[in-house]
Design brief:
This protein is mainly beta. The protein has strands at residues 3-7, 10-13, 18-25, 33-39, 46-51, 57-59, 67-72, 77-82, 91-99, 103-106, 110-115. Strands 2, 4, 5, 6, 9, 10 and 11 form a seven-stranded mixed β-sheet that branches. Strands 1-3-8-7 form a four-stranded antiparallel β-sheet, with no helix packed on it.
Length: 116
C-alpha cells in the first residue's frame, strides 16, 4: 500500500538547520506532487511548501528564502532543507503526496523543535 515516512526532525538552536526526508513507497513517485505541512502547538496545520511532479516549487512566505524543497525520483523521496531555523518553525512536519486517481496520502509526521 501507499506509505509516506518522514524523518530528520530533531531539536536545534535558533539559526540552525535540518533536512527532513519523505520516503515514499507503494506508488509511482514521479507522478506525485509532494507537499510539506506543519502544525505547531495550538495551531492549525498549514502548508509550508509544495513541489509538482515536474519539479515546480512554491513556498509559504514564512519560509521563503530559508527552506528548499526538492525531490529525487530515483530514490522515491522528497526533502525539505530548512535553514536559519526560528522558534516559530517549531512544529510537527507532515509530508503529503497527491497522486492521479489514487488521491492523497499523509505521513506520520516528524517533530522539529527550535529553541532560542
Amino acid at each position: 500500500q501507499v506509505q509516506l515516512v518522514e524523518s530528520g526532525g530533531g531539536s536545534v538552536h535558533s539559526g540552525g538547520r535540518l533536512r527532513l526526508a519523505c520516503a515514499a513507497s507503494g506508488m509511482v513517485f514521479e507522478d506525485a506532487s509532494i507537499e510539506w505541512h506543519r502544525q505547531g502547538p495550538g495551531k492549525q496545520r498549514e502548508l509550508v511548501a509544495q513541489i509538482s511532479n515536474k519539479g515546480v516549487t512554491n513556498y509559504d512566505d514564512s519560509v521563503k528564502g530559508r527552506f528548499i524543497l526538492f525531490r529525487d525520483d530515483d530514490k522515491s523521496s522528497a526533502y525539505l532543507e530548512m535553514n536559519n531555523l526560528k522558534p516559530e518553525d517549531s512544529a510537527v512536519y507532515y509530508c503529503r503526496a497527491d497522486l492521479p486517481v489514487l488521491g492523497d496520502f499523509w505521513g506520520q509526521g516528524t517533530r522539529v523543535i527550535v529553541s532560542s
